[in-house]
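Table S2 (continued). Query chain:
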Amino acid sequence: MVGHLESFEAKLLRASEHLKALEDEIEAWFKSSPYRIARHVNVERTRYSLVVSLVSNPPLERWSLIVGDCAHNLRSALDHLVYAIATKQSPTGRLRSERTIAFPISDSVGDFNRARWRIKEVSEPVRTAVETLQPYNRKHATLPPLLGVLRDLDDADKHRLLQLAFSTVSQWKLNNVEGLIPEQLVRVSFYPGDVKEGTEIVALSFDQPTPDVSYEYDGEFVIALGHAIGPAGIGQTEVSALLHALDAEVRDVVSLLQAAAG
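Corresponding output:
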């Protein structure tokens, strides 16, 4: 166990506080009934759809600031840990590269080799552990490598607001559809993406007038955070789920580094 981890632990705690605050605000917004869903049908009775009407807009700018703060604390916790390990392992308790030591996050072996100088004051077992934890060595089944996502969010937040959206990441379903005409052609379309005022999220289209259609629907909206496209082809994830995944990844990395440091 590495000593002198107060600042690292404080960073992780602060990240958790930001995440809890974000979840509380998003939950309160959804509970306020901020949108309505209206059933629309065209004059010809060949197209039935669900259209969103926003009663109040989600405060995406504020939430983006909270997400950026959460990501930054998770990212800098890794730097604080490497600093603490190097200090603990130094014979004098002081560092020559105090201003530049950091936990590198690289997408390729070449990039990591060019960043090795940032961990030159830690022991060889720790340097080896840092390399094994790089995104190119630590893939994710559906998302991009999580440390790469964390780095990208932290870097982007330095220059612009992060890409939060009121979205239909979760697919909607139509149930108990009745009133169909035998052998007619039916097409069902779902809108995947950011939802604005007037967005048509689901539509039923028929090749002939179908006047007596009835149906039920089921689905939910989320506040989604944009990121690089992962193996599943997805470039948005529900923000709370993604931040929890990043938090778990950082904590796992911390445990592995501490074990390597002895």
